[in-house]
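Researcher: Structure for this, please.
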Amino acid sequence: METLQIIILDPNTNNAQHAATRLRTLLKKKDLSAFVQEVTCYLEISRQGLNGKTPVIAVNGKNFQCKNLSFELLEQFAQWLASNIND
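Model: Predicted structure, token format:
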């Protein structure tokens, strides 16, 4: 199984850090291997054309725009990843 490369892009450092920690835990419980990192730099977010479009979760280069980074949303996202990666 390949290791997922996941980047959480959000200029709010606290939200990005908490979301990354939650997502790592959720994915580990689903036996998914993932490298999760956060990008909170406004310049990097803007460079990627995501200014005003955050939060975004990028998985292996594909962006998923989110309304928020709530625990419920992250849980649903982890479930969706587990369902689609293992198919």
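Researcher: Any notable elements?
Model: The longest helix spans residues 13-29. The first strand starts at residue 4 and ends at 9.
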